[in-house]
Hints:
Blueprint: H1 2-21, E1 43-47, E2 52-57, E3 65-72, E4 75-83, H2 87-90, E5 99-102, E6 111-119, E7 124-133, E8 138-141, E9 158-160, E10 165-173, E11 176-185, E12 188-198, H3 200-206, H4 219-226, E13 242-249, E14 252-255, H5 264-270
Antiparallel strand pairs: 1-2, 2-3, 3-4, 5-6, 6-7, 7-8, 9-10, 10-11, 11-12, 12-13, 13-14
Amino acid sequence: MKKTLLLLTTIFAFASCEKKNATVPPAAEKSQTPAQNPDTDFISFSDEANGVSVGYKKSPADSRNIQIDVQKNGEKIQTISFSYPDDCFENAVLFDKNVVFEDLNFDGFKDMRIFLGSYGNQGVEYWQFFLWNEKNSRFEEDESFGKGAIYEQIPNPKPNAGEKCVVGFSRENAAYHNYFIFEFANGKFELTHQLHEATIFDIFQLYEIEIPENAQADQTKQMLELLGLSPDLEINANETLFYAEEHFENGKRTIEKPALRPSERFCKAFGWKESDFGN
């Protein structure tokens, strides 16, 4: 009996040691992608269509410049050293080094635009365009509006590939907005259409019409009639918005009669629905 108990004790002890010494599989390590450091790492994007890749580095050590390296089919073909205008640091309400890669002139090749900052109470954004020259295999700085002239660039630019234009937007005040359509022709961006959205008092100023001294007591009706609109049109002079469209071609400016809704051209360019506006 003692031998049996001794044998059982030995067996249990051995089994216990086996469990303690057994190899436990290590917990699977989580795969971690190292966080990108914009101070040391290049931020890259590429265009598969023409084999061009672009990388840029945001370095606070050289805050007034940005280095952009361009490769084509794996070979470095260009380095762009862009210097930001002083206004980016002195007057911008928001500034960050940012580059967007997209087709701006609708030739099938992606271009670049470099963020120049947001300005004023409305935070209007300005960008510097660099256009891809396929013949020379390089990006070339667009000088349609002057080199380094921030406030001459397209405000809040947004390309519309379907309409082959770049649209822009700015604000005079809370009730007066400007909308712009730029088209790329003859190697540069040109303003072709501008839409003014404002009350009748601001719209009236665009037409440089003087109200006669013997004007009616109801000045609103007088302005409507002088603008070629029905004086019986029911509007709130301080709230109803009118749309006046200007056209620019070959250095000439023409302006359409104001309306209570924007034209089809602007609706398509900005993605608006005509039904969203007045009758």
